[in-house]
Amino acid sequence: MTGAMLAGALVGLGLYALARAVFPPRPGLAARLASFDAARRRDEDARNRRTSPALERVGGIRAKVGRELVKFCETRGWQLRSIRADLAITDRSLEAFLATKFLLPAAAVICIPIVVAYFALLGVGDSLQVPAWICLIFAALFFFFPDMQLRQEAAARRQDFRHVVGAFLDLVSMNLAGGRGVPEALMTAANIGEGWAMLRIRDALANARITGQTPWQALGGLGDDLDIGELRDLSGALALVADDGAQVRKSLSARAASMRSRELSELEGKAGERSQSMLVAQLFLCAGFLVFLAYPAMIRVMVS
């Protein structure tokens, strides 16, 4: 009964996909507006590829599948803002991410006949339910695995970026104390560091000079692209007190001090969690040692 229901569901899904392919729906207003936004976003991605040499390159079947999936998402008006921000900070392309999310579950589904043949060789049974469900479960896991990996990597990179922002604020405040203006102090401070985070800040400030934006607008746009709240706050603070150098220097120094104190508290919290985990591991080790000592006496009492 279950096999017939599964076969019927697959046939119905195939007929639905065929009908949608033969008679595609007309794009609505939201889809057309999304296509304009997608064209602008493609220009920005092309510019990021020129300025960020570490961005992941995609080739072969992944590139074709990724481009088709990106077009599908754009025609549906799906923004994927959080995913795009995570991909931007990890220097990965949306095409590669979507292709991975599609190809991994597809490989798990395609492997259903292989798993069925393997179960038949083992003599476990002739039913298709167990291997089909195993492959479907693995397909679901493979579908969500790229999201979890991307989220963890993006969180680590954002933590590193926040640390760089704190050092950048200190450098800007020192340049302001030396008599430079706000734009010159920002660019001079960005030219000192050589890490990937400082390179992104430097590129954003250089592009702002070319496009005619203010440096704080460029920093705010970078904060929106990478989902870094500290850069957005810095942009708002500089926009308010950009004309008063003393106020800017005091504000930046206070922000750098608050960021350092917050990072220190986070590090202390992580150290406390690790010490607690080590304590739990030691307790389990002691419990196992006590069981090892008490086991012979318990066996002797029970036998006698």
Record keyword descriptors for this entry.
304 residues, flat, 12 helices, mainly alpha
Number of strands: 0
Specify the biggest β-sheet. Answer: none
Q: How many alpha or pi helices?
A: 12
- Radius of gyration (CA) equals 28 Å
β-strand percent reads under 5%
Fraction in helix: over 70%
For the record, give the distance between the C-alpha atoms at the N and C termini, rounded to a whole number.
57 Å
User: How does the overall form come out from the CA principal axes?
Assistant: flat
Q: Structural class from helices and strands?
A: mainly alpha
The helix-strand sequence is: HHHHHHHHHHHH
Q: Any low-confidence stretches, pLDDT <50, length ≥5? A: 49-55
Report mean pLDDT, rounded to a whole number.
78
Indicate the multimeric state: single chain
Briefly say what this structure is.
Helix content is 84%, strand content 0%. By secondary structure, the chain is an all-alpha fold.
Commentary on this structure:
The protein has 304 residues and is mainly alpha-helical. Helix content is 84%, strand content 0%. The protein is built from twelve helices and no strands. It has helices at 2-22, 29-51, 61-76, 81-89, 94-110, 112-122, 129-177, 182-190, 196-211, 215-226, 229-241, 245-303. α5 (94-110) packs antiparallel against α7 (129-177) and α11 (229-241) runs antiparallel to α12 (245-303). 21% of the residues are buried.
Layout of helices and strands:
Blueprint: H1 2-22, H2 29-51, H3 61-76, H4 81-89, H5 94-110, H6 112-122, H7 129-177, H8 182-190, H9 196-211, H10 215-226, H11 229-241, H12 245-303
Helix pairs in contact: 3-5, 4-7, 5-7, 7-8, 7-12, 9-10, 10-11, 11-12
Keywords: Cell membrane, Membrane, Transmembrane, Transmembrane helix
Domain Type II secretion system protein GspF: 168-293
InterPro entries: T2SS_GspF_dom (IPR018076)
